[in-house]
Design a protein that fits this description.
Length: about 170
């Protein structure tokens, strides 16, 4: 499920969610590897703490690699919130400031659904700064990007679920 609201003055509120055939503990086991898990987004490249000598934790400044085809660029952000076993939020900003280049905040959250299932929700809130683009194109782009992110994350988590079942049944 994906829902998108483009609000007056180009505020973006985008939510994608999926049911997973695994407990929140199993899903969190993958999500807690922040730099790897956030890198499953097809546009996020290598992600690291701004000070590579420090671990990524709440409050850490981040360097967020981005990629699209042959294009590569680094953006900056901060790990805003970390709730062990539940989820996290981080900002994704242009190096030119927070008023350019679609400044936004990603949030990943897990919700239990019985003993053996959970829901993963990815939320993106921000401000679309390329005002010269038509709204229909902005909508299509944002839906396409989140759709690909959900697909990549789901595939990764389902591979984990399948490998756990094969291990248990062996």
């Amino acid at each position: 499920m994906i829902a998108l609201r483009l609000i007056y003055r180009r505020r973006v509120h985008l939510v994608g969610s999926m049911l997973l055939p695994m407990s929140t503990n199993v899903a969190w086991g993958q999500m807690r590897s922040f730099t790897h898990f956030v890198g499953l987004d097809p546009f996020h490249g290598p992600i690291r703490a701004a000070d590579a000598a420090l671990p990524v934790k709440e409050g850490s400044q981040l360097i967020l690699g981005h990629r699209f085809g042959p294009l590569r660029l680094d953006r900056v952000g901060r790990l805003l919130r970390w709730r062990e076993g539940v989820g996290y939020s981080f900002s994704d900003l242009s190096r030119n400031g927070n008023r350019t280049g679609f400044p936004h905040v990603f949030s990943y959250a897990l919700y239990p659904r019985g003993d053996k299932g959970c829901r993963l929700t990815i939320t993106v809130r921000g401000h679309w700064t390329a005002g010269w683009l038509p709204r229909w194109l902005i909508r299509q782009w944002l839906l396409w990007v989140l759709g690909h992110t959900l697909h990549s994350v789901r595939n990764q988590l389902l591979r984990i679920a399948l490998s756990r079942r094969e291990t248990v049944s062996s």
